[in-house]
Amino acid sequence: MQTHRPNWLRPAIFWLAVVVIAVVIGRYATPPQINRPPGATGRMLPRLPGPAPNFRTLLYLLGVGSIVWYAAAVALPLLVLGARRIDLDRLGRVRAIGIVAGVLATLIAITSIIEYVALYRGSPVQPGFAAYLPQALRQNVLPWVALAGLVAAAEAGRRALYSAIDRERLRAQVAEQRLIALTGQLHPHFLFNTLQGISTLIHRDPEAADEMLAKLSDLLRDLLRHRDHVLVPLADELRYARTYLEIAQLRFADRLRFQIDIVADADQASVPLFILQPLVENALAHGIGGRTQGGCVRVLARRDGERLRLEVADDGAGLTTSTTLREGVGLSNTRERLRASFGDDQRFSLGRADAGGAVARIDVPFRAHAQPRTPP
Predict the structure, then answer these.
(1) CATH number, residue 286
(2) Which three-class secondary structure state does DSSP give residue 285?
(3) 130-156: pLDDT as tens digits
(4) Which of 103, 300, 309, 322 is the most exposed place for a label (fewest CB within 10 A)?
C-alpha cells in the first residue's frame, strides 16, 4: 500500500536544511576569540576596519554568523512561501508593496530587539533602545532589503517560467485541436471519393468492388486506431498510402502502377496522420487519371541529416495552368496541417518532375516518433 507524505514535510526539510547550513557557515565565520567591549556578552556590531587577513575573517566582517544572518536563515523559507502566495492580480500592486514593506519592517524590528537584548544583556554599559535604534537600522535594513529583493527576483523568474510553460502548453493544445479539425475535414473527402469509385465497379466488376470495399474497411480500421493521435510514425503513414494505392489499382486495373521507396532510418519519423493521401489522390486525379495508357505513381521517403523529405511523383501530363492556380481541398489542407505541425520550419511545393509529370515535395524536420503512453 502506497503511503503519501504530508504536504508540509518537504518545506519543513528545506527549512531545516537552510538553518543547519546557515549555522555551520556562521559558526565557521565566527572567530573563537574576538575583542569585545568590557561587559559585552555578544559579538560587536561595528566591523573592524582594514582588509581581512583571511577568508574566515572576511566572512565575519561581512556579517556571516551575526544575529541577522541566523534570522535571515530562519525567515528565508517563510519569505519564499509568502512570495508565492501573493496574488498581484487580486491584491493590486500598491497593496502588495504595502504588505512587503510591513513584513520587512516587522523583521527589521524583531532583529533589532533580539540584537539589543543579546549584545547588552547584563552589561553595565547599556544604552537605551532609542539610542541604539539608529545603529540597528544601519545594520539590519540593507540585509533584509537585499534578501527580499533576491526572493522577489527568484519568484518573478519562477512565475515567468511557469507563464511561458502555460503559454506553450496552450499553443500546443490549440495547434493540436486545429490539426484534428483539419484531419477530420480530410477523412469525409477521401471516403466520398473512394465510395464513388466502388459504386462504379459494383455492376462492372463485382469482385473488384468487393475487394476494394474490404481494403477500404482495413484502411478505416487502421485510421480509427489513431483517431486520438494527430502524429503517426512514417511507417504507418506509408502503409496507409500503399493500401490506398491498392484500392486505386482495383479501380484503374492495369492502367496504374505504383512504387514506394523508403530509406530504412526514415520510417520512424513523426508525420501528420494522412499527410500522403491527398498527394497520392492528386497524382491519380490530375496526373494519370485522364490518360488512356495510365501511368506510375512513385512515393519516396528519405532522411537527409536532420530533415525528412517526402515526394509523391507521377509520370502523367504534368501541371496545367488550372492545377497550378487552384488547389483543391486536399492540397490546401496539406499546407495547413504542415503549418500547424511544424510552424515555419517546413516546405511544401508542387512542381514539374524531371522525367515528366508532376511531383509534390514535403520537407520537414526529422523528429523520431514518441509512442503515446498507455494508461496503467
Answers:
(1) 3.30.565.10
(2) helix
(3) 888 888 888 888 889 889 999 999 998
(4) 322
For 28-66, write each residue's pLDDT tens digit.
766 665 444 444 444 444 444 566 677 777 777 777 778
Question: What are the backbone dihedrals phi and psi of residue 42, each rounded to the nearest 5 degrees, phi first?
Answer: -115, -170
Please give the residue range of the domain that contains residue 306: 175-365
Asked if residues 55 and 106 have their Cβ atoms less than 8 Å apart, the reply is no
Any domain includes 141: no
Q: Mark whether 182 and 121 lie in a shared domain.
A: no
Find the angle CA(355)-CA(281)-CA(287) to the nearest 5 degrees: 35
Q: What does each C-alpha distance from 156 to 73, 76, 164, 329 come to in angstroms? A: 21, 16, 12, 47
Residue 260 backbone phi and psi in degrees, to 5: -120, 120
Q: Is residue 180 part of a domain?
A: yes
Q: For residues 65 and 52, what is the distance between their CA atoms, to the nearest angstrom?
A: 16
Is-contact 267 302, C-beta < 8 A?
no
Half-sphere exposure of 135 (CA within 13 A, CB side): 14
Residue from 273, 274, 279 nearest 258 by CA: 279
End-to-end, the C-alpha distance of the chain in Å comes to 17
User: Same domain, yes or no, for 119 and 200?
Assistant: no
* Within a domain: 2: no
Total count of domains within the chain: 2
- Which residue from 192, 197, 302 is spatially nearest to 247, judged by alpha carbons? 197
**Amino acid code (one letter) for 326:** R
By DSSP bridging, strand 307-314 and strand 295-304 are antiparallel
Q: What is the largest CA-CA distance in the chain?
A: 119
Answer whether residue 117 is part of any domain.
Answer: yes
